Q: What sequence folds into this?
């Protein structure tokens, strides 16, 4: 099983500004030594190791889970456009079996859908799944009337929308898919995908920080044994108190939830669109220090999601790039 991240921001796409680019360029120049600039190869090596030479990314939520000839897509934020392009470049756009799973239908999680290449392929079969019964109505709204030039009813692909039950696993292409009701306006669901002895859990958007004691057991039980757990950690601890009832969480509550869990890696996801790369890095560093204090015996890893980050979940180990 392979997992790739195509969009990791929350609420609204946040492309890097000229000021942000200038800040990174300045940091690179100040940090560089003469030998780092001695040749093109030296420059490349310097950029490869500098924390200032990359970005977490500005696209909204989209996660790809692949096994065999199957592609599961978790949410269709702006990141899904690049996924569609990659599928074409890799020769999989026309052949792979595609199933899309929606946590909910707020704009930042569906606005990339009209830009997903496979939906324009004649006869292409695509499965759409969610915990709601009205997913087709909600998806079609943004492609009807004056909202988008291509209308839902004119799409040449065959899109079939299905509702997932809350109380049982559903088999999809040999994988077991479970959902968990989340704490977010207008209904949202978390996902667990199990296949071939490997599993991914996706828990965004949810406000566990308001009453963590009431939901800790539900979340920890749902994620137990998963290789990868991707969670809504939009705010730092102090920031959250200015955003109560916004429907989002802090990473610190999830560390509390999973401190005794047997998981592989906990991933900070749904970054605040107002947070710079430096701010996300600081949040991740604070979270790691917190983990060392309250979960010193936990064996799982902790990371902050970045676009094109990927994991190979297979064999006896998990690798991340």
A:
């Amino acid at each position: 099983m392979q997992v790739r991240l195509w969009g990791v921001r929350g609420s609204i796409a946040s492309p890097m500004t000229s000021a942000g680019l200038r800040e990174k360029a300045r940091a690179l120049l100040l940090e560089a030594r003469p030998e780092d600039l001695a040749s093109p190869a030296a420059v490349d090596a310097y950029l490869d190791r500098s924390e200032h030479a990359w970005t977490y990314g500005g696209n909204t939520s989209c996660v790809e889970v692949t096994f065999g000839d199957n592609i599961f897509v978790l949410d269709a934020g702006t990141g899904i456009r690049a996924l569609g392009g990659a599928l074409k470049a890799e020769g999989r756009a026309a052949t792979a079996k595609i199933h899309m799973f929606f946590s909910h239908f707020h704009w930042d999680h569906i606005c990339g859908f009209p830009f997903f290449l496979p939906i324009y392929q004649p006869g292409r079969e695509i499965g759409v799944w969610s915990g709601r019964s009205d997913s087709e109505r909600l998806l079609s709204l943004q492609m009807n009337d004056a909202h988008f030039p291509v209308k839902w009813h004119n799409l040449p692909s065959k899109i079939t929308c299905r509702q997932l039950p809350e109380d049982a696993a559903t088999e999809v292409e040999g994988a077991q898919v479970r959902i968990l009701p989340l704490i977010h306006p207008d209904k949202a669901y978390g996902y667990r995908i199990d296949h071939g002895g490997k599993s991914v859990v996706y828990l965004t958007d949810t406000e566990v920080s308001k009453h963590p004691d009431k939901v800790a057991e539900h979340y920890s039980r749902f994620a137990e044994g998963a290789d990868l757990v991707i969670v809504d950690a939009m705010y730092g601890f102090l920031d959250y108190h200015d955003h109560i009832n916004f429907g989002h969480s802090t990473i610190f509550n999830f560390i509390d939830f999973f401190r005794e869990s047997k998981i592989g890696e906990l991933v900070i996801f749904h970054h605040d669109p107002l947070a710079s790369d430096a701010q996300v890095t600081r949040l991740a560093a604070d979270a790691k220090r917190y983990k060392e204090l309250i979960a010193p015996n936990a064996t799982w890893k902790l990371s902050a999601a970045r676009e094109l980050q990927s994991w190979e979940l297979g064999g006896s180990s998990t690798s991340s790039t």
